[in-house]
């Protein structure tokens, strides 16, 4: 029997929670172990159940999705919980703050059911989860920010190889795609990614994406990212 991905669902709208739960519980490999209507109760349930994935609405009463993410990421006992933020909204400072706090990524609530299920499984594997629409807006926002807002802190700690790997992660590449691009084995690519995450104290691959743009390691050009010279 396939091991199930355990999920805690946190959203203040009962209809949204019910719809997502019905989708998830209909799958043999996915199960919702608890649900909550506000961030404070959600964090308590996540501490109790320690799920693989926490689906958290970005704007909720009592405790926002950003603050809930920060508390989860700050608890060493919850290191295995992958937070995915659910949002109806476009990119704003809440999105950046949740990413910086340790969210694995974002999903818009009008996502197609098949894409939603695929995304939850990807999050459980530890992959960065940024939908194409979110990623485009995220990059555009970084471009619009003045250079002074970027920091090169942490770049010195990375080897040239690790910088190259982080730049490719920021382009949305998987370990297998990075390996093919750099002509190395997938295991070596995974090792480089893991070392970069450790050196940058990045909880998730999504935080590597944020770092790559904030530090200026990559620059969006015609929809692409290329290593900064």
TrEMBL record:
Pfam families: GerE (PF00196), Response_reg (PF00072). Residues 6-124 form the Response regulatory domain. GO terms for molecular function: DNA binding. It comes from the Bacteria. Keywords: DNA-binding, Phosphoprotein, Transcription, Transcription regulation. SUPFAM superfamilies: C-terminal effector domain of the bipartite response regulators (SSF46894), CheY-like (SSF52172). InterPro entries: CheY-like_superfamily, NreC/VraR/RcsB-like_REC, Sig_transdc_resp-reg_C-effctor, Sig_transdc_resp-reg_receiver, Tscrpt_reg_LuxR_C, WalR-like. The modification 4-aspartylphosphate is found at residue 57. Residues 151-216 form the HTH luxR-type domain. One of its GO terms (biological process) is regulation of DNA-templated transcription. Gene3D superfamilies: 3.40.50.2300. The keyword Metal-binding does not apply. PANTHER family: TRANSCRIPTIONAL REGULATORY PROTEIN NARL-RELATED (PTHR43214:SF24), TWO-COMPONENT RESPONSE REGULATOR (PTHR43214). This is Response regulator transcription factor. It comes from Phytoactinopolyspora alkaliphila.
